[in-house]
Amino acid sequence: MLFAPVFNAIDDTLAEAIATADVAFLDGTFFYDDEMIARDLMDKRARHLGHQPVGGDDGTLVQLGEIETRVIFTHINNSNPSLDRDSEEYATLREAGAELAYDGMELTL
Fold first, then answer.
1. Rounded to an integer, what distance in angstroms lies between the CA atom of residue 95 and that of residue 48?
2. Which of 17, 43, 62, 87 has its CA 20 to 30 A from that of 32?
């Protein structure tokens, strides 16, 4: 199991750790890099706050491609639209085979 709740980029070391884990809990704080700006919450991008976004052209979902690791996003900010299970962002996340962590979640390894 890998637990990486905060990172601003997936480097080679992190990519290898994700690919070799059975389950990876990854930083899901923001779906978009400009999420806080677009919602008029803060004038900073996700990456400036130390978080790689889940979505977008160079986000975590794209960088992970078709890995076989079970990916569960954690540390999710309340501004993240993927929290809405009826949203396009949630559908994108699920279509990629990823999950969102939830309170009380338990796994057996």
1. 28
2. 17
